[in-house]
Amino acid sequence: MNRILAQCGKELNQFRRDRLTVALAFVLPLAVLLIYGYAIRLEAKNIPLSIQDFDNSPLSRTYVERLFATNQFVPAPLLGTVPTAPLDRGIAKATVIIPPDFQRQVTAHKPVTVQALVDGTDVNNARVIQNGLRAATQFFLRSSGLLPPQAQSPIEAQVRLWFNPGRQESLYIVPGIFGVILWVFPSMLAAIALVREKEQGTIVQVYASDLSAMAWLLGKELAYLVVGLGEALVVLTVATILFGLRFRGDPTVFIVGLVIYLGAAVAFGLFIGARTGNQTGAVQGTAIAGFLTALLLSGFIYRIENIPFPLSFLSNVIPARYFIEITRDAFVRGTGWPGVWYAPLAIGAIGAFFFRLATRILHRMQFTD
Amino acid sequence: MSLLRALTQSRLWALILKEIRQILRNRQIIFLLLFPPTIQLLVFGLALNPAVNHLSLGVTDYSRSPDSREFVASLVANDVFEIASFQPSVAELGQEVRTGQISTGLVIPPDFAENLAMGKPVDVQVLIDGVDANTAGIASGYIQQTINRYGQSLRDLPALPVDIAVRFLYNPGLLSSWFFVPGVIGVVLTLTGSLVSSTTVIREKDVGTLEQLLMTPAMGWEILAAKIAPLFVVLMGDVLLASALGRFVFGLPFRGNYFLFLALSGVYIFVCIGIGILLATISRTQQQVVLTSFFFNVPLIQLSGAIAPIESMPPFFRVLSFFDPLRHYVTIARSLILKGTSFAVLWPEVLTLLVFAALFLGVSIRLFRAQLA
Hints:
Largest sheet of chain A: 4 strands, mixed
Radius of gyration of chain A: 28 Å
Helix content of chain B: 55-70%
Largest interface: A-B, 111 and 108 residues
Strand content of chain B: 5-15%
Number of strands of chain A: 5
Helix content of chain A: 55-70%
Number of domains of chain A: 2
Number of domains of chain B: 2
Strand order of the largest sheet of chain A: 2-1-3-4
Number of helices of chain B: 15
Distance between the termini of chain A: 23 Å
Order of helices and strands of chain B: HHHEHEHEHEHEHHHHHHHH
Oligomer: heterodimer
Structural class of chain A: alpha/beta
Radius of gyration of chain B: 29 Å
Number of helices of chain A: 15
Order of helices and strands of chain A: HHEHEHEHEHEHHHHHHHHH
Structural class of chain B: alpha/beta
Number of strands of chain B: 5
């Protein structure tokens, strides 16, 4: 035990002396937090919408006014007579075409169809726009008294959004960023530290000493767990201040989960470090394997259920996925242990697996007498 | 012919051949050129999917009538919702939402059937887990529309006085990969291009062969041109690889002029090479290159609109994104691949991209040469 602690102390000393690494360990996570935290918003607001009103009657103008009344859309110029032109140029995301006899047909109680051309490139917002246009049309019918009394639907949905009634996207994105940052950076630092000893040849001393591979790795694990906790503290403090995140309910799941998660991240880094021969490879390995999986297969951006078959299997063994469930619960839902009890277990199992692999690789290299 | 001979006998040509041989011999670079781009394109294209379907729906039906059952059946008819469980009471339903087992809950009141029969309005309660704000928004829109339509269908009405028919242009099937893959082609070029070009430059710095090169009679510009030309060629190979994957794995339509796409991708590659040389100039070792590349690549990618739409960013970041060369390339790629836009419409973006290419390449070459002197 003393040896592990001594190793840990030595490791922390080395870390502290390398200015560049210290800067990267704390500046990069913050940079990522700020950029992701502010720039990832999925739902477009102020969608540019252009109108081609062939009718130009009082009723059609009321309709247009209603479309813009929800503040979801902002007017965009049509540019000429081709309704697809603003979409081609990207200055509008949708064009609504009102037919020439709009008012006449409506007053004659004949059904009219208004055409909407929607830019389907951004699939998510195409759906948002479709919903918005339909809702605005309903609103127009209702507010202009055009709905016959029996058209009022007898069933009314009272929708309540739980946990995040204002639908703030930052409450979804920022807890997810914790999962990405606290996986990528601790593992990268640990991988660099291990590989550096290989590059500088100091690892041979360890092989020759009677310190076991396990004890040596545990020392490193502990040291970078401490560094990771420091990173977590900085990132969480800044996120609390800037994005107004607060613990909802019991924070113990989060605290337990955080320590296990950081431990797993460091173990993953040690594994990559044990596998690769140079620092560039180690950084690239953790960056590609860590960043890509934590970003794309963890449910950070879109629902994890949407990941198709072979990849969905992989997403089950991505620790970030479980940790993001913990953070979203801790900062938004607030259910605590009954909701995510399994997540720390899953992360712990995956972390132990990586640690075991790392010790096996190094154990094989150790001199035996 | 004599021009060709002059070229093949020139010093520049000899240097280019040397560079090409160096690249081909470097396993790491060949690996970097082929493996990460393929994986990134496939994972981005397959894993990122904003679809809102098969949302798990829990039902508490206090009415337990044929009417209420028919109502529930109508909600799950279009695959947006999928019944996950029936719960005896609201408390249990709420607990399921809280523990994340279901994302939507529906509560049907006991007097549902009676009130409907008597023509009285009925309120049903819908609980939606709002943690995923985006999905929750779309889901709540869907459920309200579906319930409305079902309600109206109960009273045989004439058609609605005004209906809106929505047609999706460019991507009528709303395939999410069509949105992401053209953007990710740009992301892949940025990551691979900057990394590969910085690696080839820094290696000579690392090993010290750069000094040897400088001792030869070759001019500074010749050394650099000889470095850039083969990089350009291998990165164009990546463009071909990426567009082949896009075409044959994801079925991208490539509606615009493909040669224009290649030419503009070529312009963007110069931007990436510029970033790579810049990285190699400000770093001393390969490891530093990889770490500092984070500082460039994360904002470059995030502000480009390749992953999250630019329109939804806060105003400050929207303005900032104009200074992101990748943003302009992503716009061009999406326009040419999905929309089939012509050059006449695209030229402002093309011009911006050219300016960026000249700027990045110019600045990085100047810094690099200053460092050599």
